[in-house]
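ARCHIVE CARD
SHELF: 3
SLOT: left
DATA:
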Amino acid sequence: MERLSMEDIRRLADEAAIDIPERVRRFAPVVGVRYGRITIRNQKSKWGSCSSRGNLNFNCLLMLAPPSVRDYVVVHELCHLIELNHSKRFWNLVAGVLPDYRKEEKWLKTQGMLIMRRMTG
Protein backbone atom coordinates (compact mmCIF):
# COMPACT_ATOMS: atom_id res chain seq x y z
CA MET A 1 0.00 0.00 0.00
CA GLU A 2 1.33 3.40 -1.00
CA ARG A 3 2.51 5.82 1.69
CA LEU A 4 0.87 9.23 1.85
CA SER A 5 3.08 12.22 1.16
CA MET A 6 2.89 15.38 3.24
CA GLU A 7 1.14 16.97 0.26
CA ASP A 8 -1.46 14.16 0.29
CA ILE A 9 -2.00 14.68 4.02
CA ARG A 10 -2.40 18.44 3.58
CA ARG A 11 -4.96 17.86 0.83
CA LEU A 12 -6.88 15.41 3.03
CA ALA A 13 -6.78 17.89 5.92
CA ASP A 14 -8.16 20.64 3.66
CA GLU A 15 -10.98 18.35 2.50
CA ALA A 16 -11.70 17.28 6.07
CA ALA A 17 -11.84 20.92 7.23
CA ILE A 18 -14.90 21.30 4.98
CA ASP A 19 -16.47 17.84 5.19
CA ILE A 20 -16.23 17.05 8.92
CA PRO A 21 -17.69 20.33 10.28
CA GLU A 22 -20.66 19.89 7.92
CA ARG A 23 -21.26 16.44 9.41
CA VAL A 24 -20.89 17.80 12.94
CA ARG A 25 -23.41 20.58 12.20
CA ARG A 26 -25.86 18.01 10.78
CA PHE A 27 -25.60 15.50 13.65
CA ALA A 28 -25.17 17.74 16.73
CA PRO A 29 -28.89 18.67 16.87
CA VAL A 30 -29.85 15.01 16.34
CA VAL A 31 -27.64 13.94 19.27
CA GLY A 32 -28.83 17.00 21.21
CA VAL A 33 -25.47 18.56 22.02
CA ARG A 34 -23.56 21.79 21.55
CA TYR A 35 -19.89 21.66 20.70
CA GLY A 36 -16.87 23.93 20.82
CA ARG A 37 -13.96 24.06 18.43
CA ILE A 38 -13.46 21.49 15.66
CA THR A 39 -9.84 20.62 14.90
CA ILE A 40 -8.55 18.44 12.08
CA ARG A 41 -5.36 16.58 12.94
CA ASN A 42 -2.92 14.22 11.33
CA GLN A 43 -2.93 11.32 13.80
CA LYS A 44 -1.41 7.87 13.70
CA SER A 45 -3.75 6.08 16.09
CA LYS A 46 -7.05 7.91 16.71
CA TRP A 47 -9.95 8.69 14.40
CA GLY A 48 -11.46 11.27 16.71
CA SER A 49 -11.56 12.57 20.25
CA CYS A 50 -13.33 15.17 22.34
CA SER A 51 -12.55 17.23 25.40
CA SER A 52 -14.65 17.86 28.47
CA ARG A 53 -14.98 21.45 27.17
CA GLY A 54 -16.81 20.20 24.08
CA ASN A 55 -13.96 20.60 21.60
CA LEU A 56 -13.80 17.95 18.89
CA ASN A 57 -10.73 16.56 17.11
CA PHE A 58 -10.84 14.45 13.96
CA ASN A 59 -8.20 12.66 11.93
CA CYS A 60 -7.73 13.93 8.37
CA LEU A 61 -7.37 10.29 7.26
CA LEU A 62 -11.13 9.94 7.73
CA MET A 63 -11.37 11.36 4.22
CA LEU A 64 -10.09 7.97 2.99
CA ALA A 65 -13.02 6.21 4.67
CA PRO A 66 -16.54 5.89 3.26
CA PRO A 67 -18.96 8.72 4.11
CA SER A 68 -20.97 6.43 6.42
CA VAL A 69 -17.81 5.76 8.45
CA ARG A 70 -17.16 9.51 8.73
CA ASP A 71 -20.74 9.92 9.99
CA TYR A 72 -20.13 7.19 12.56
CA VAL A 73 -16.96 8.79 13.93
CA VAL A 74 -18.69 12.18 14.15
CA VAL A 75 -21.71 10.71 15.96
CA HIS A 76 -19.40 8.70 18.23
CA GLU A 77 -17.55 11.85 19.34
CA LEU A 78 -20.75 13.88 19.70
CA CYS A 79 -22.22 11.17 21.95
CA HIS A 80 -19.10 11.42 24.11
CA LEU A 81 -20.17 14.99 24.90
CA ILE A 82 -23.02 13.36 26.84
CA GLU A 83 -21.26 10.20 28.05
CA LEU A 84 -17.46 10.47 28.40
CA ASN A 85 -17.08 6.67 28.39
CA HIS A 86 -18.06 3.58 26.43
CA SER A 87 -20.87 2.46 28.74
CA LYS A 88 -24.09 0.79 27.63
CA ARG A 89 -25.76 4.21 27.83
CA PHE A 90 -23.13 5.65 25.46
CA TRP A 91 -23.67 2.87 22.88
CA ASN A 92 -27.44 3.32 23.18
CA LEU A 93 -26.97 7.00 22.30
CA VAL A 94 -24.92 6.06 19.22
CA ALA A 95 -27.48 3.43 18.19
CA GLY A 96 -30.27 5.97 18.63
CA VAL A 97 -28.73 8.08 15.87
CA LEU A 98 -27.11 5.34 13.75
CA PRO A 99 -28.90 2.02 14.36
CA ASP A 100 -26.48 0.16 12.05
CA TYR A 101 -23.32 1.73 13.52
CA ARG A 102 -21.70 -1.68 14.09
CA LYS A 103 -21.15 -2.04 10.34
CA GLU A 104 -19.05 1.17 10.30
CA GLU A 105 -17.31 0.24 13.54
CA LYS A 106 -16.33 -3.10 11.96
CA TRP A 107 -15.08 -1.32 8.82
CA LEU A 108 -12.80 0.85 10.96
CA LYS A 109 -11.45 -2.19 12.81
CA THR A 110 -10.74 -4.13 9.62
CA GLN A 111 -9.77 -1.38 7.17
CA GLY A 112 -8.75 1.48 9.44
CA MET A 113 -5.36 0.08 10.33
CA LEU A 114 -4.53 -0.21 6.63
CA ILE A 115 -5.22 3.50 6.26
CA MET A 116 -3.21 4.39 9.35
CA ARG A 117 -0.23 2.42 7.99
CA ARG A 118 -0.13 4.78 5.00
CA MET A 119 1.07 7.64 7.23
CA THR A 120 4.42 9.15 6.35
CA GLY A 121 7.18 8.91 8.91
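SLOT: right
DATA:
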Amino acid sequence: MSSVKIKRIESNMVKCISDILANEANDSLLKTITITGAEVSSDLSYAKIYFTSLLKMSTQELEKELNEASGYIRTELAQVIDLRHTPKLEFIYDNSIAYGNKIESILKEIHETTNSND
Protein backbone atom coordinates (compact mmCIF):
# COMPACT_ATOMS: atom_id res chain seq x y z
CA MET A 1 0.00 0.00 0.00
CA SER A 2 1.32 3.47 -0.81
CA SER A 3 2.87 5.48 1.99
CA VAL A 4 0.65 8.43 1.12
CA LYS A 5 -2.48 6.36 1.73
CA ILE A 6 -1.08 5.00 5.01
CA LYS A 7 -0.21 8.54 6.18
CA ARG A 8 -3.75 9.64 5.34
CA ILE A 9 -5.19 6.70 7.29
CA GLU A 10 -2.91 7.48 10.26
CA SER A 11 -4.00 11.11 10.25
CA ASN A 12 -7.66 10.12 10.03
CA MET A 13 -7.23 7.65 12.90
CA VAL A 14 -5.70 10.34 15.14
CA LYS A 15 -8.65 12.64 14.43
CA CYS A 16 -11.30 9.94 14.89
CA ILE A 17 -9.82 8.42 18.06
CA SER A 18 -9.45 11.91 19.58
CA ASP A 19 -13.11 12.55 18.81
CA ILE A 20 -14.17 9.19 20.26
CA LEU A 21 -12.27 9.81 23.50
CA ALA A 22 -13.57 13.35 23.87
CA ASN A 23 -17.20 12.80 22.92
CA GLU A 24 -18.16 9.12 23.09
CA ALA A 25 -16.26 7.69 26.07
CA ASN A 26 -17.98 7.60 29.44
CA ASP A 27 -14.76 7.17 31.43
CA SER A 28 -13.45 10.52 32.69
CA LEU A 29 -9.88 9.21 32.43
CA LEU A 30 -10.29 8.68 28.67
CA LYS A 31 -11.52 12.26 28.25
CA THR A 32 -8.16 13.57 29.56
CA ILE A 33 -6.12 11.77 26.88
CA THR A 34 -4.62 13.64 23.93
CA ILE A 35 -3.75 11.56 20.87
CA THR A 36 -0.44 12.77 19.41
CA GLY A 37 0.16 10.34 16.56
CA ALA A 38 -0.39 6.97 14.93
CA GLU A 39 1.69 4.40 13.08
CA VAL A 40 -0.20 1.87 11.00
CA SER A 41 1.41 -1.30 9.64
CA SER A 42 1.57 -1.63 5.86
CA ASP A 43 -1.08 -4.39 5.87
CA LEU A 44 -3.37 -2.26 8.12
CA SER A 45 -3.69 -5.01 10.71
CA TYR A 46 -1.97 -3.21 13.56
CA ALA A 47 -1.73 0.41 14.75
CA LYS A 48 0.39 2.03 17.43
CA ILE A 49 -1.47 5.02 18.84
CA TYR A 50 0.65 7.58 20.70
CA PHE A 51 -0.91 9.66 23.45
CA THR A 52 -0.18 12.02 26.30
CA SER A 53 -2.10 13.16 29.35
CA LEU A 54 -1.85 15.86 31.98
CA LEU A 55 -2.96 13.47 34.72
CA LYS A 56 -0.45 12.67 37.45
CA MET A 57 -0.75 8.92 36.84
CA SER A 58 2.17 6.71 35.90
CA THR A 59 2.63 6.17 32.18
CA GLN A 60 2.31 2.40 32.69
CA GLU A 61 -1.06 2.85 34.41
CA LEU A 62 -2.32 5.15 31.65
CA GLU A 63 -1.17 2.68 28.97
CA LYS A 64 -2.87 -0.17 30.84
CA GLU A 65 -6.16 1.73 31.10
CA LEU A 66 -6.16 2.71 27.43
CA ASN A 67 -5.18 -0.74 26.21
CA GLU A 68 -8.02 -2.21 28.29
CA ALA A 69 -10.39 0.20 26.52
CA SER A 70 -8.89 -0.49 23.08
CA GLY A 71 -11.65 -2.96 22.17
CA TYR A 72 -14.32 -0.31 22.76
CA ILE A 73 -12.29 2.34 20.93
CA ARG A 74 -11.67 -0.04 18.01
CA THR A 75 -15.40 -0.82 17.76
CA GLU A 76 -16.27 2.89 17.73
CA LEU A 77 -13.48 3.57 15.22
CA ALA A 78 -14.81 0.87 12.88
CA GLN A 79 -18.11 2.78 12.66
CA VAL A 80 -16.52 6.05 11.54
CA ILE A 81 -13.46 5.05 9.50
CA ASP A 82 -13.79 3.50 6.05
CA LEU A 83 -11.54 0.42 6.19
CA ARG A 84 -12.30 -3.21 5.42
CA HIS A 85 -10.68 -4.32 8.71
CA THR A 86 -10.05 -1.99 11.62
CA PRO A 87 -6.47 -2.41 12.89
CA LYS A 88 -5.71 -3.80 16.32
CA LEU A 89 -4.85 -0.80 18.51
CA GLU A 90 -1.93 -0.54 20.92
CA PHE A 91 -1.66 2.64 22.97
CA ILE A 92 1.82 3.92 23.79
CA TYR A 93 2.64 6.93 25.97
CA ASP A 94 4.35 9.66 23.93
CA ASN A 95 7.43 10.86 25.82
CA SER A 96 8.39 13.43 23.17
CA ILE A 97 6.48 16.29 24.83
CA ALA A 98 8.07 15.68 28.23
CA TYR A 99 11.45 15.27 26.53
CA GLY A 100 10.97 18.56 24.67
CA ASN A 101 10.00 20.34 27.89
CA LYS A 102 13.11 18.98 29.61
CA ILE A 103 15.37 20.21 26.79
CA GLU A 104 13.64 23.59 26.86
CA SER A 105 14.20 23.96 30.62
CA ILE A 106 17.88 22.99 30.23
CA LEU A 107 18.32 25.58 27.47
CA LYS A 108 16.58 28.21 29.59
CA GLU A 109 18.86 27.38 32.53
CA ILE A 110 21.96 27.66 30.30
CA HIS A 111 20.71 30.98 28.92
CA GLU A 112 20.08 32.35 32.43
CA THR A 113 23.52 31.19 33.58
CA THR A 114 25.31 32.85 30.67
CA ASN A 115 23.34 36.09 31.14
CA SER A 116 24.11 36.25 34.87
CA ASN A 117 27.85 35.81 34.17
CA ASP A 118 27.94 38.85 31.84
